[in-house]
């Protein structure tokens, strides 16, 4: 009731049409320095000009797999000054967390998606397998002995690894870490065997020869120089395997249409910004240009992702408190 009243007052006073006349905060539900944080800061910079040289700050609110930051935005005033930049966790948390403090499809205004970040299947440099076929054979020959690293329950690497195990029918010992950095450190050091993670994290390690790369998780091969020769998991035999870590922008439910329309229009301009495109390509990310850039298309896609990942999570029986 309070949020609805605030929105109504904003429209009544004309504040929605003067928007923005004070700093906008984009909440990132993870620690600074990670892939989502990088995307948010690049987007904030690109959004400033389309929003009349607005001041846009990024606030990191980490914890509980991103749900603490999302909950903060869900409860914020619906005035367009508190936004959320969240990745695939926006969809997976709907099943992963038993007591989610918000309703994913009901408590936010969907503003449009930003990008897709492909993932790569990688292994320690000392792994005997030198290609995907050899890797699958090695995994089969070493059932019960393979350690699969991830950055924690609900992380992109956890989800990709979970689906990979289900698709190949081989269970592995899952080793969760408190973030990508320690997981990658142990993979490079040979303490764990394989990991599936975002190109934003893996490309430098692949380029440096610190890990072995076996495949990418998207339907098409990538054009990034370091990854262009990697086969897709689909062409390698896992038909239909398609995992990318997407990012979308959200506002609290009840934010006036005049504001959400303006934000969506600004996003469309920001995603055409040459510097933004350059930075995203350097991360291996693909900027969204399809129907998911619309609020309706964005919401429809997230609903489908909830169904997709909900089935995988339920099959594995892996839940958070």
How would you characterize this protein structure?
The protein has 321 residues and is α/β, with parallel strands linked by helices. It has a domain at 2-116 and 245-316: 3-Layer(aba) Sandwich (D-Maltodextrin-Binding Protein, domain 2), CATH 3.40.190. The protein is 41% helix and 19% strand. The chain is built from twelve helices and ten strands. The protein has helices at residues 2-13, 15-18, 35-48, 67-74, 89-96, 132-141, 156-168, 180-189, 199-207, 257-270, 274-282, 295-316, and strands at residues 24-28, 56-60, 82-86, 108-124, 147-150, 173-176, 194-198, 211-216, 244-252, 286-287. Strands 1, 2, 3, 4, 5, 6, 7, 8, 9 and 10 form a ten-stranded mixed beta sheet that branches. Strand 1 (24-28), helix 3 (35-48) and strand 2 form a beta-alpha-beta unit.
Question: What descriptive keywords fit this protein?
Answer:
10 strands; 12 helices; alpha/beta; ten-stranded mixed sheet; D-Maltodextrin-Binding Protein, domain 2; 321 residues
The total of helices stands at 12
Average per-residue pLDDT, rounded, comes to 91
Question: C-alpha Rg, in Å?
Answer: 20 Å
The name of the CATH topology of the domain at 2-116 and 245-316 is: D-Maltodextrin-Binding Protein, domain 2
* Series of H and E elements: HHEHEHEHEHEHEHEHEEHHEH
CATH superfamily annotation of the domain at 2-116 and 245-316: Bordetella uptake gene, domain 1
Q: Considering DSSP H and I runs of 4 or more, what fraction of the residues is helical?
A: 40-55%
Q: Report the sheet-strand fraction.
A: 15-25%
Q: Based on Cα principal axes, name the global outline.
A: globular
CATH secondary-structure class of the domain at 2-116 and 245-316 = Alpha Beta
The name of the CATH architecture of the domain at 2-116 and 245-316 is: 3-Layer(aba) Sandwich
List the uncertain runs.
12-16
Gap between N and C termini: 29 Å
Derived from helix and strand composition plus strand pairing, the structural class reads alpha/beta
Tell how many strands the DSSP assignment holds.
Answer: 10
